[in-house]
């Protein structure tokens, strides 16, 4: 049984019912509707921490979805799961793929920056100041673009950029 049919609480059931009605009414192909169903089930599984199930649903959605914009969100969510699992290299691959399809995805830019910043901090701990500088500069580049696209978001990143005197250069 699809996850969307297993929801236990009233709000989830209501959302699922409304989403099912909208999907049926929208002038989209069966393939697109099926892709959306897998995507929705992936989001539901992901929100419950069922990452293996979420990935299975997202991969099925990717197999069916042809719209680059919609694919970008699927790829972004796959990146989120890999980030949560500490697989930062794989997460970066999916965030980059998401940005190739949708360059205006500030949350992907932010997550890339977070990973580079984390790696910069790890380089400092390992006594590699030159590598940390490169990684922090990459983080700054991605955060500047995220802030440019979503100026009211990422306040911590904006603060960090200000401490580096990077924010005024980009905005």
Number of helical elements: 9
By DSSP, the count of extended strands is 0
Strand-residue fraction?
under 5%
- Unreliable runs, pLDDT <50, ≥5 residues? none
Distance between the termini: 49 Å
Radius of gyration: 19 Å
Give me the secondary-structure category.
mainly alpha
Taking the sheet with the most strands, its summary is: none
| H and E string | HHHHHHHHH
User: Helicity range of the residues?
Assistant: over 70%
Net shape? elongated
Q: Quick check: average pLDDT?
A: 88
TPR repeats: 35-68, 35-68, 72-105, 72-105, 120-153
Subcellular location: Plastid, Chloroplast thylakoid membrane
Protein name: Photosystem I assembly protein Ycf3
Keywords: Chloroplast, Membrane, Photosynthesis, Plastid, Repeat, Thylakoid, TPR repeat
Overview of the molecule:
The chain is mainly α. It is built from 9 helices and no strands. It starts with 9 loop residues before the first helix and ends with a helix. The mean pLDDT is 88.
